[in-house]
Design the sequence.
């Protein structure tokens, strides 16, 4: 069988796992997109405040995401080695990490809520953002617990139910927004704070529902923990943190590039911050496709390692990398051609629409690089290679993206567009060097 045929065969298997994961992640992004659209109808200032508060929350959220990645990697590896008891232990320890770290982050965010005026944002934004930010902070524990349970289900080869639960969460969040933002069903109009209440409630219910489903599903019964508390293994925590902490570092470096880009947008004014929020939401929802592909291929790579089939790593990896490049090209055309129309769906402000359309053009240029870098990063995590990719990510975002964005956007003449040009440079750097790393680490099944 030719190399291309083998890659296509592995790609089909990866897509079978990736499709529900992609739909699930798109559903999760739709929750943020729905918030932006519904908050935007309440005014430009609430939309800008949601961008500020949401980006600060994401700073903490991505650290938790990184710590949950070992659940997927080690459960998939245990499944490949046909050790369901090991999979159960990784889930149990992952839930403990999610709960403990989530509580810690919630307390830190509560303290940070008293210092939001120090970020140099418009006064009208700071005046309304605190209740929204605190409600998001309270949602960090249920969302991390949900994430650990979803990682477990997907790594066990059952991604469809988490997808359905996420879709239900989007619908619930939209319905609650209608009640709490605008003041329907006898509830007073709470504006931005209402969006925070909707998010907290929908995330909590999602965590409860997926736990109940997994507990009752006979397909995962052999790998379901027989006890939840006590008897924890320090060695297992260390093993998971050895992967989770560098993974958190990679996500941290990438996310802070976007967080500080949003802060720089705030320095440029409310219009720039609102346009950034719309554009980043649109780019992010498209990003869920390569992200889902990356998660799926990372699990398949980890499964191959557990099954002792390292010779399959290269065709598994490069079939998806080529596919991600094609998908990114298609998305780039859509963003470049439809940016202005898309912006009108969110806000009627002409200045925000015009700037959003410009940012969409820059987003079109980095779609391919963004897709390739996230797929390559998940492949490397799946095979246990996390230290060098973390350094690559640090350089890409803190050494390239932020300095370039500041120089040409804040100090230079390009303004908001320049900040996004910096992001594009950083993503391209990460895509090139992470792909080279994948090629080296999968050569000859090494």
Sequence:
């Amino acid at each position: 069988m030719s190399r291309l045929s083998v890659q296509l065969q592995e790609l089909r298997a990866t897509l079978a796992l990736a499709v529900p994961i992609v739909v699930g992640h798109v559903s999760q992004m739709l929750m943020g997109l729905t918030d932006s659209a519904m908050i935007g109808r309440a005014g430009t200032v609430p939309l800008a405040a949601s961008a500020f508060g949401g980006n600060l929350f994401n700073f903490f959220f991505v650290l938790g995401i990184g710590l949950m990645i070992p659940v997927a990697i080690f459960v998939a590896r245990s499944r490949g080695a046909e050790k369901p008891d090991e999979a159960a232990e990784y889930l149990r320890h992952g839930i403990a990490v999610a709960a403990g770290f989530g509580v810690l982050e919630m307390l830190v965010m509560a303290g940070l809520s008293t210092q939001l005026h120090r970020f140099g944002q418009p006064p009208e934004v700071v005046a309304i953002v605190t209740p929204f930010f605190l409600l998001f902070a309270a949602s960090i524990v249920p969302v991390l617990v949900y994430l650990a349970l979803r990682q477990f289900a997907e790594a066990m080869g059952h991604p469809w139910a988490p997808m359905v639960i996420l879709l239900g969460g989007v619908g619930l969040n939209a319905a609650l927004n209608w009640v709490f933002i605008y003041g329907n069903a006898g509830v007073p109009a709470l504006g931005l704070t209402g969006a925070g209440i909707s998010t907290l409630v929908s995330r909590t219910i999602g965590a409860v529902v997926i736990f109940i489903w997994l507990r009752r599903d006979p397909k995962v019964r052999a790998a379901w923990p027989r006890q939840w508390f006590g008897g924890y293994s320090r060695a297992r925590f260390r093993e998971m943190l050895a992967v989770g902490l560098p993974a958190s570092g990679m996500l941290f470096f990438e996310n802070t590039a976007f967080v500080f880009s949003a802060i720089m947008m705030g320095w440029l004014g409310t219009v720039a911050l609102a346009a950034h929020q719309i554009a980043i939401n649109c780019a992010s929802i498209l990003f869920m496709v390569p992200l889902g592909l990356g998660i799926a291929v990372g699990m398949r790579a980890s499964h191959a390692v557990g099954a002792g089939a390292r010779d399959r790593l290269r065709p598994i990896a490069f079939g998806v990398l080529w596919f991600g490049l094609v998908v990114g090209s298609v998305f780039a055309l859509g963003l470049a051609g439809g940016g202005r129309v898309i912006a009108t769906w969110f806000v009627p402000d002409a200045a925000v629409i015009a700037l959003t359309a410009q940012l969409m053009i820059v987003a079109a240029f980095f779609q391919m690089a963004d897709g390739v870098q996230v797929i390559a990063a998940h492949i490397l995590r799946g095979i246990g290679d996390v230290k060098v990719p973390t350094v690559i990510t640090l350089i890409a975002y803190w050494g390239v993206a932020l300095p370039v964005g500041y120089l040409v956007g804040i100090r230079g003449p390009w303004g908001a567009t320049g900040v996004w040009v910096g992001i594009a440079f950083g993503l391209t750097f990460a895509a090139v060097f992470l792909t080279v790393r994948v090629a080296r680490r999968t050569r000859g099944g090494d």
